[in-house]
Amino acid sequence: MAKKKTSLFECQHCGEQATKWLGKCPNCGSWDSFVELNQDQQEVLKQTSKVINTDTKAVPITQIKQDDVIRFSSNNDEFDLVLGGGIVPGSLTLIGGSPGVGKSTLLLKVAGSIAASGKKVLYVSGEESAGQIKLRANRLEANHDDVYLLSEIKLEEIQDELLRVNYEVVIIDSIQTIYSSNLTSAPGSVSQVREITFELMRKAKESNIAMFIIGHITKDGSIAGPRVLEHMVDTVLYFEGESSKELRMLRGFKNRFGSTSEIGIFEMTNEGLVSAKDITSKFFDKSKAQSGSALTIVMEGSRALILEVQALVTESTNPNPKRSATGFDGARLNMLLALLEKKIDLPLNHYDVFVNISGGIKIKESSADLAVVAAIISSFRDRPISKESVFIGEVSLTGEIKDVFSIDMRLKEAQAQGIQKAVIAQKPNMKLNLKCFPVDEVSKMIELF
Ligand SMILES: Nc1ncnc2c1ncn2[C@@H]1O[C@H](COP(=O)(O)OP(=O)(O)OP(=O)(O)O)[C@@H](O)[C@H]1O
Ligand SMILES: [Mg+2]
């Protein structure tokens, strides 16, 4: 009797599999996203899920020789910093970012600088013609004999090219445009993206090629394709920034070879993306004191950045006043507003409150609480705060102001940028050329205005 064929269905958003069709994906919650995989697709899936290492015997850890991670520089300081100190041969890095943020520009620029050190780089584009890329390369000064362009969308052709020439670095722009003729599904679909990434990973590990893959992102900001993609690769980076502004941030999300705490900061200029020089002064404008604006200092990896917190407090006609935060945690903003109502009797329940962090940076630590409080009071009272002052401190639920980590580094940066006054939780031990005003309670903030 012939063996009964098993049906397999797969969610086209997250890659979840089921043996029967489901209307709603139990993993990602999308509706009508399950499609049936044919026998060929199921076969490919089986192959891709096989573990590469066929050594089945376990070995005591003490007898295993450690892999030494030898990196090489991309000759781009910011890029190296985010990767944890340089490029690791044989590694696979996924770079996501919204349309037009500058992913192709960044990687072409990096391709040029790597080639300048005598390494062969292949730039595969499934989105643009070689002529278009050449035009960009001219603008970026990335023209180099060792940068090879391939305008191709078929995986098998790319694999042939990789067999023909020994490249040390390969860039794929973008994973969603490449397809394999082994699979019948459309380019960009979950099974295509997974299969192609798996094949590229196999090639990268086998031939010790450092591979960079550009990925489109979805509306919610994650890389389009199955979640498993992020698990498969060694490093995941996100390229962020507002396309209306010149500053762009490259942020590590996962890194098997280094920390993810550093961010790379670039500036989009006519010559393409250049490492932003004198970064600290880019995120705030010292020119004029305005009400609703307060400066703070946050740590981004090993760097201290001065940021401007802006708040707008306006009378509301709505029974449920609006609260909106960009670059700052919305729940934390609500907590601070409740605290201001309770501790200093600001009638904020009748006011709309908007908070924004300038420069497109998302604050992930609580040291900016005090600056948010200062900006809100300043906007409410319509009293400008001098741009010579910074506010650094975490505000607790009881209204206490707490010290934050690396306060010395933050204050040194403030001093270097010509700041005269720092409002902080405790006086630091070090000697500084700026005046420190210790404030231990949020209720005492009102005395500063
Ligand atoms: N001549 C130019 N001078 C300055 N900046 C430019 C110039 N041409 C393009 N840009 C900038 O480059 C950005 C596009 O960059 P790029 O094509 O690298 O983005 P991308 O992230 O690869 O986009 P996509 O997702 O569409 O592929 C534009 O938004 C613009 O800011
Ligand atoms: Mg592009």
UniProtKB/TrEMBL annotation:
DNA-dependent ATPase involved in processing of recombination intermediates, plays a role in repairing DNA breaks. Stimulates the branch migration of RecA-mediated strand transfer reactions, allowing the 3' invading strand to extend heteroduplex DNA faster. Binds ssDNA in the presence of ADP but not other nucleotides, has ATPase activity that is stimulated by ssDNA and various branched DNA structures, but inhibited by SSB. Does not have RecA's homology-searching function. Keywords: ATP-binding, DNA damage, DNA repair, DNA-binding, Hydrolase, Metal-binding, Nucleotide-binding, Stress response, Zinc, Zinc-finger. NCBIfam families: sms. GO terms for molecular function: ATP binding; ATP-dependent DNA damage sensor activity; damaged DNA binding; hydrolase activity; zinc ion binding. The gene is radA. It comes from the Bacteria. This is DNA repair protein RadA. Pfam families: AAA_25, ChlI, Zn_ribbon_LapB. PANTHER family: DNA REPAIR PROTEIN RADA, DNA REPAIR PROTEIN RADA-LIKE PROTEIN. A motif (RadA KNRFG motif) lies at residues 254-258. Residues 352-449 are annotated as: Lon-protease-like. CDD domains: RadA_SMS_N (cd01121). Residues 68-217 form the RecA family profile domain. Belongs to the RecA family. RadA subfamily. GO terms for biological process: recombinational repair. ATP binds at G97, S98, P99, G100, V101, G102, K103, S104. One of its GO terms (cellular component) is cytosol. The middle region has homology to RecA with ATPase motifs including the RadA KNRFG motif, while the C-terminus is homologous to Lon protease.
